[in-house]
Write a structure and sequence with these properties.
This protein has about 150 residues and is mainly α. Helix content is about 90%, strand content about 0%. Keywords: Coiled coil, Cytoplasm, Cytoskeleton.
Length: about 150
C-alpha cells in the first residue's frame, strides 16, 4: 500500500499543479489521521461501555460518575470525529474531481482502490492493536491470579 501510495503521489506530482498536489497530499495525510482518530475513539468508547455494563451494586458512586462522564465525553468526541470524516469525504470528492482531469480511467480506479485499501488497512491495524491489548490484559490478569 505504501509503494502504491508513493507511485500514485509521483504520478500526481508529474501531472498536477503544485496546489493540486498539495491538496492531494493533505487529503491522504488527513485520511490516516481522521480514520485513526475515529477508530481510537470508538475503541475507547466501547471499553467504557463494557465497564459500564459491569457496574453492579458494589460499584461506588464516584466510579459510576467517572464512567458516565467519560462516556459522555467520548460520545461527543466521536460525533466530532464523524463530522471530520464527513468533511474528509467531501474533500476526497474534490481531489477525485481534480485527478479525473489528469488521470486515465484505470489510474483513477487505482487511486480510488488505494484510498479504499489504505482505509481498510488502518481499520485492520487498529483491530489487531486492540486484540493485542486485550490479550495482554488477559495475560496480566492471569499472572495476577496465579501468583
Amino acid at each position: 500500500c505504501a509503494a502504491r501510495g508513493a507511485a500514485l503521489e509521483a504520478l500526481v506530482r508529474a501531472l498536477c499543479t503544485p496546489s493540486e498536489l498539495e491538496r492531494y497530499r493533505m487529503f491522504v495525510g488527513d485520511l490516516e489521521k481522521v480514520v485513526s482518530l475515529l477508530l481510537c475513539l470508538s475503541s475507547r468508547l466501547a471499553r467504557v461501555q463494557n465497564a459500564m455494563r459491569r457496574i453492579d451494586g458494589n460499584t461506588d458512586a464516584e466510579e459510576r460518575q467517572s464512567l458516565n462522564e467519560r462516556h459522555q465525553l467520548l460520545s461527543r468526541q466521536r460525533e466530532d470525529a464523524k463530522d471530520l470524516k464527513e468533511n474528509l469525504d467531501r474533500r476526497e470528492r474534490v481531489v477525485s474531481g481534480i485527478l479525473a482531469k489528469y488521470l486515465t480511467d484505470q489510474q483513477l480506479r487505482d487511486y480510488r482502490d488505494f484510498v479504499e485499501v489504505k482505509t481498510s488497512l488502518l481499520i485492520e491495524q487498529k483491530d489487531l492493536e486492540e486484540q493485542i491489548k486485550l490479550l495482554e490484559e488477559q495475560l496480566e490478569n492471569l499472572e495476577k491470579s496465579i501468583g
